[in-house]
Structures
1.
Amino acid sequence: MSFTGNIGPLLKRLAPAVLLLSVLLLCGMGAFAQTEESSQKEEEDDVVTASQSKDTDIEADQVPQEVSAEGAEIPQTEEIIAQGKQLFTGNCTVCHALNEVVVGPALAGIHERRPLPWIKAFIVNSQRVIQSGDAYAVNLFNTYNKTVMPSFNFSDEELTAIIAYLKYETENAAQGANEPAESVAGNQGEGAGQAGNEASAFLTTIVVALVVVLVLVLVVLILVSSVLLKYLSQRTDLDEEDKEIVNRQFSFGKLVKSRSFLGVLIFIFVAVAIKTGIDGLYSIGIQQGYQPEQPIAFSHKLHAGQYQINCNYCHTGVYKAKSANIPSVNICMNCHNTIKKDSPEIQKLYAAVETNTPIEWVRVHNLPDLAYFNHAQHVNVGGIECQTCHGPVQEMEVVYQHAELTMGWCINCHRETAVKTEDNDYYDKLVKLHNANTDEPMTVEDIGGLECAKCHY
Amino acid sequence: MKENKKRYWKGLEQLANDPEFIKKNQNEFADYLPINSNKGNGGEGGPNRRDFLKMMGFGLAAASLAACEAPVKYAIPYLNKPIDVDPSLVNYYASTYAMEGGFCSIVVRNREGRPIKIEGNNFSNITRGGTSAQVEASVLDLYDNSRFRGPLISGEPAEWPEVDKGVMAGLERARNVKVVSNTVYSPSTKAAIEEFASRYNAEHIMYDAHSSYALIKAHEDTFSVPAIPSYDFTKADVIVSFGADFLGTWISPVEFNKQYAKTRKLGPEKRVMSRHYQFESVLTITGANADYRTPIRPSQEAEAVAALYKMIVQRDAGTAAAEFKYLEKAAKDLLKNRGRGLVVSSSNHIVVQRLVNAINVALDNYGRGKAVDITRPAFYRQGNDRQMTQFVAQAVAGEVDAVVFMDCNPVYDFAGGEALGEALRAGKIKTSVSTAMKMDETAALCTYIAPQHYYLEAWNDYEPRKNNFYVAQPTIRPLFLTRQVQESLLLWAGLPTVNYYDFMRARWKEAFFPLQTEIADFDLFWDAVLYTGVFIPGVPLDLDPKADLRYETAATVEDETGALTPIFSADTDADLAAVPRAVNVAPGQHELVIYEKVGIGTGRHAGNPWLQELPDPISRVTWDNYLTIPMALAKELGLEMEYNETKKVKLTVGDQTVVLPAVIQPGQAVGTVGIAMGYGRSNVGVVADKIGINAYPFIRIEEGVLKYFVPEGVKIEATDEHYALAQTQTHDTYMGRATVIQEATLQEYQQDPKAGRFEPMIATSEGPIAPDKLSLWDGHLYPNHHWAMVIDLNSCTGCNACVISCQTENNIPVVGRQEVLNRREMHWIRIDRYYSAKTEAEMNEMELNMLEDKQLELASANPDVVFQPMLCQHCNNAPCETVCPVAATTHSSEGLNMMTYNRCVGTRYCANNCPYKVRRFNWFKYHDNAEFADVNPAMNYDLGKMVLNPDVTVRARGVMEKCTFCVQRIQEGKLEAKRENRRPKDGEIITACAKACPADAIVFGDINNPDSQIVRLLKAEEQGRAYNVLTEIGTRPNIFYLTKIRNVDLDLEGEEVVTA
């Protein structure tokens, strides 16, 4: 047996190895792309959980137990503050924020500025206080464009609770600036996030190294094979069989006609067609990324991002109703009766008021009629951030549909999300039962969140 | 345990075991799919096989095209959002339903500014949170397509100023002006009419289609109070009613249902109940609930009342006692319960009513804290037959120059209406104005139509009972260019600047506000009144409505401030002498009774498809009226009913002849036939036109008083014309399962609370075991809530309020007469009505030897009746769940049997496997389908669609549906609790049927909540009356029924005890 006798089969064997290698390489790159994607997703999730844990940490740890001298009559128990918070977000945030002027004045430190009975009287019936000639009230009224604050028929306890909450927030914010407590909580969150990052970075390195090694092996193999071929072609003592192999011309026609090639081709074609078809069918009705042009070029980036106006200010139903509500023109007018009056986009608002025609916004998020979704349940009770479903609205110049809004997407979230049970007596019994059986957090699924009639009726 | 051997049947065909009936009921679905019917497409021609291929091809292409781009949807917010209205949040407004003398204090459920549901107002001391089918259905009339869009002159659309000018000119010229209306018991409206009347020297005439004139007149004669008294059935241990259908149609059925049901409640703490005797001709739901019912002919009623009087006062009735079965027994019971009884009669004969008063006085039933109270008169019936008859006579004689028909329709619903119609047609009344809100027989003949607001769009106030004030407030802006009727009157009276709201408030400030001292500021007072809808001087405005506290307080307050007891004076001997003799009905002679139906009533609601499709509680017929005939007469005529198939008969009364279908009605008095009023309308729109026969022309006027029966000259002849009645009575029948109804007598119950219960045991290796303890399944865990329902068969009166309440709440389509005939009605809750009579074991020898034919007649002569609301039982081991191939019906962790429409593929296996037959299949697309537009306007017109509940899906063709336990309400209630960081309170979450029930027969709640009413009830009745229907098959339903108890004296052999 000659040397050359062996070279043919060697090359023969080499060819599939090269093929296999290149396939491996491709797969590797695909996998890399995927891991990168999922690690990104994990990062996002981490951020969300981190911020949630931050909130709860503050609530649990930071309630000051001692009562300051000037606020002796304002109770500062956790319960009352929680009640006050609820009342405040439910009723007041439409016009007031703590540290900035929205429609009405910023309310941080209000308990120091005005006496308690005065605040109460003003909330219950501001017009009465103003009409009584109270100088402060009249001044306030005039400063804020004579905007009438609606009357709120709160009980005395409720009023106290709201003021207690404001006091707590004021003091807490001041404390937060000095105290590092908040940043500790923040660090913990970051730490968790870093751990996740590290793991994914490690994976990436391995994959990259593997790909490099594989590429090197491939190059070396190709080099070896071509050197060998070159050497063989210079020799004349080859027998017919070897010659055929060495001088083999790459015949495209033959390849195309070969059965195996055609078989593979058809297989790939069918597989791709089926995959595309199924994907296409699954995506029917999915409008992820849908970004229609709106009648008024309203920028969430400006309002929610730059000016940090609370979502609830315009979307008034988000804490209390099924629909979050598209704001009516009178809400726009709260600010735009003075701000940027001459802008052509704002002029559209004036035109709407004058012609008495409501503005027809294009609906971006469309759920089918058969699915019942309630904002209050998710945002108020569940404590879900708006961005979880609506994406980074504060960065959107024009709003687009961020999430898939498919049933699979809903279900997935219900499987993964832990129910916000703190301070909610509704869940007490359920939590007790759940914790008796497992250490896992109680997810929406655990309390029947996957049942049909929770969303379809 | 004594086994119940009674035999129950739903219809005579079931009693007779008609082969057709058996055949039809062996199959779950009556007919095969109507392949060639074009209803499903709403268009022309049905698809064939080729079309199918074409359509499929096109469909695929269209689907892929449609997938590319979804249609653009718009979100249109308010321009100026009202403070109180938040999209998708519910608002409730207290108001009052007061059509044609009906009374119900209501709460209107509003979504996005549109009323979508009527519920009972718990703050009311009269109706106490109950409603009726008519009240529930009234919300649909708001969105009626046939409403006037604006005023009309001579049938042509006009502008308001033109109408005002024309009307005022006509009134100026007129010498004799009349305002005609049904009962008006609104103080402010009366003041407005007064303004108008004084300007034109006009006379206000009130009439009622179903008149209570004799009752009012009798009280004027005997007590000098021209009004009907307040009745309080809770104070009556013995109730004797002569023809008064007080649970269905007589005067104020919601109020009476509430009261009556209280006397029928039983439990470990209360083992006694009222006893109820009913003497009537047509079987009504009141008669169906009676412990003792005696069929009598209407002409006998006066004699029966006279005989009762004699038995009670003179202790001797002579021969009459024997004539009326149970009358003597009733008299004895009344005497035994002196001061705790009640005798009522619906007779419109003044002498009879005076005698009834004399009986009640003799029994000491009048007075404060007693069953009849004339010191607190009720004002919701004031119709004066004589005035009205006189008016018609004047109109016919051409003496009336101008008339305003204020929301009434006398041409149709007054006995002399035809003559009035002729007078109008002939132009004898120069200026005629109707304020009807949609076309009716009277408006069609009037020159001017000045349409008024619907009651849900208008302000008003009411005084249903002396010193009880109620308000009605608008719950939606007027949909059309209509005008509040009082405003029209004030305007025509020459007060153009007055708006009725201000007018009414001014009156309240002046007259009613000073009656209280609780609130010093009128505006605050007004707000408080609007909040509860009720103002009773002396009762705190915000008093908790719970537990009848309000009701009791109102009564006590009135007791303290009570007026003097009026003095009774009557010449009873003269009355006795004047009692009209009963007509002796020879064979072939009949008396005709004109009666009112629970759904359609006097006909005002005939245009309401919900009420048209509501099965009559007794006959179970929809979309029709008919002649009810006793079995004996059917034999005579050779008439047989075969499964909805009947024949028409020719009814001749005097010179009037009509041909109408006959229904063999068990319980119908021999020698009588009955026909319901309210049908045979014309000019009123697609729903009601040409349905049934108008019975008003048969009502007689005798000495100016309406008589609702014809004693003589009634002839009935058989015809050969076949007719199919859309009768639902034998739909959804359980075959061979006798224990669905469980009942006992009061005595048996007192000895053993479990009396009448069927408690099957299953033999196992470990001995006999109750079927609900034995199961193949692991069962479900209910960690959070476990919803369940208890239905008390003893207090359910069969009034059907729940059926319409459910229909409104759950967007249930109306399918129309033909589809009901095809057994495809869609109601999620039905009220099964079972007849029962002696079983073979109870029959004596003679009865047993009768021919089968004769036995049938005997059994149907005067059967016992039970009503059973039947809805999805939400079984814990649900047979439907296990057979669904696509898991579209599954079990929830809260005990609900869920139905997922978007997953259902329509195999109907679940319905086949449901032992309770409560699943309904959408055979057609009932919405946006021209084929159903006429009968189902709520899903086919933009206007009608405003009534739909936005929280509930409108189901598509081809899916199964059924009761969901109002899951949308459960979810809403839970969310509210979660938002407030607490558990839901008992009574906060309640289904539509339970909310509507005026008898509180349906109790819904969470049996995981130990403080709930349902847990208390079930604990008390676990070893008592509570049972599951078909417990032997082990479905373990979440609905429990409480056994029916009859307060009858039966000896051990089941024979009547005759005590001397």
Note: Residues 40-45 of chain B have pLDDT under 50 and may be disordered.
2.
Amino acid sequence: MVTENTCPQIQLKNLCKVYQIPGGEVHALQNINLSIEKGDIYGIIGMSGAGKSTLIRCLNRLDTPTDGQVLIDGQNVLAMKKKELLQTRRRMAMIFQQFNLQMQKSVARNVRYPLEIAGVPKKEADARVMELLKIVGLEEKAKAYPAQLSGGQKQRVAIARALAGDPEMLLCDEATSALDPMTTQSILALLQKINQEMGITVVLITHEMAVIRQICNKVAILDGGKLAEEGSVDDVFMHTKSAAGRRLFGILPDQEEVPPQPAIRIVFDGSAAGQPIISKLVKELGMDVNILSADVRQLNGKSFGQMMIARPEDPSDVKRVMEYLRAAGMTVEEVHV
Amino acid sequence: MTWDKLLPLLWEGTLDTLYMTFWSSLIAYVIGLPLGVLLVVTRKDGIMPSPTFNAVLGVVINFLRSIPFIIMLAVLFPVTRAVIGTAIGTKSIVFPLIISAFPYIARMVESSLDEVDHGIIEAAQSMGSTNWQIIYKVLLPEAVPSLVNGAAICVTTILGYTAMASAAGGGGLGSIAIVKGLNVRKFDIMYSASLLLVALVQIITVFGGRITRRLDHKHR
């Protein structure tokens, strides 16, 4: 308890997970080290098979790592006895891609479950259930059964259920991957609200960078079971180092066999996104600009984004463009040279 | 035979059949249901993995299940006498019926619980449920429609077994059809008792199906 104020809420130390399969082993996680602070919305992203699902399931020991430590407020989850583990699990609720609601129980009964297993008196529990359903905007569906709900509504019920035990952390295992883009937006907004208003730490895994850029403040990029890159979303986006990160950000093409076109990557850091920068560049330098891709959006209240323009043939032109953009406060880099 | 003699006979037979079916089903479920749960939860990927126990239980259940009822009835004669006090008569049939039915029920329960989505169990685990809470608050409630459907099948199977009660001097419709019908060439008794048996099976099946559909909230 001495370390309570100094250690991260969730800390992974040298986490490894090896699966035995016929004819060999699969290293699903290799020496993962990362720290998640209280109040973070921490995104873990990777392609399928990168190990992100295994990673999040190790946090509450649904999966048992082969080696390493999972520390929750400094307590090693892997060393916990059964009872202590159950108590810890109640502090870290989880939602899933397939919602995992009880199909034979009403929405209200589903949400009441964590209260039932914690022994909360029925009357008190029922009142709390209605409060929770109100938070997720489904109070009129209390008596409905999950089969009667849409995917987004089911995930809302799952979120209400997760919140019922007053957790400090919420683990989201591909929580929006089965939902359409509109519904994804509303679920992400709900997660953000829960994080901001209740101070619940959110750990989410996803394969969509848009999800990370929309609500996360921290990101870890997993690639083939290894931690490729980690840091604040702003930093990682502005100075993407790893190949996996560059692919996920669209700097590298998704498929490795497509030969990338030489380009200049312009990163909008929030201050200059309002300026007609390309238009000015064209006018002032008197050269044509071929925009390959552009993706600018709001992120934590600031305009962030990136634009890829074709690299001019003439090296001196490249230099002029780069210098011009740097002078305008942009982060620029040549890619695929 | 006239109706006023036939009807009381059939009525008594029906009551005997229902008596045997009810008590043996009930007690066999008391034994078979927990065993079915154990078969599921002690599997390698279950919530209380214990592969050795699971394998042993599986072998015992398969062994008991493969013994035909008529053989079981004979083999258990001394045990039945020790437990019930007599090995002859309607009441004593209940014991071998239970022994024959509970392994069958255990397998039926196992297959019902198997249908419960593993993700739901995992969600319950992630919420910090004890294994006992998972069993009685998640696994069993989620499987209720399927368990009821399985129960209808088990009960009709047991009802079928009761027809062999005559081999141990028991009563019931099956016994009437054989002893008071077939053996003495009274085909009207044989046919009417048999038809009643068929009717009972139909009623249980239809009601079982109806209750299953009413209870199931997953498929609508």
Note: Chain A has two domains: 10-240, 263-335.
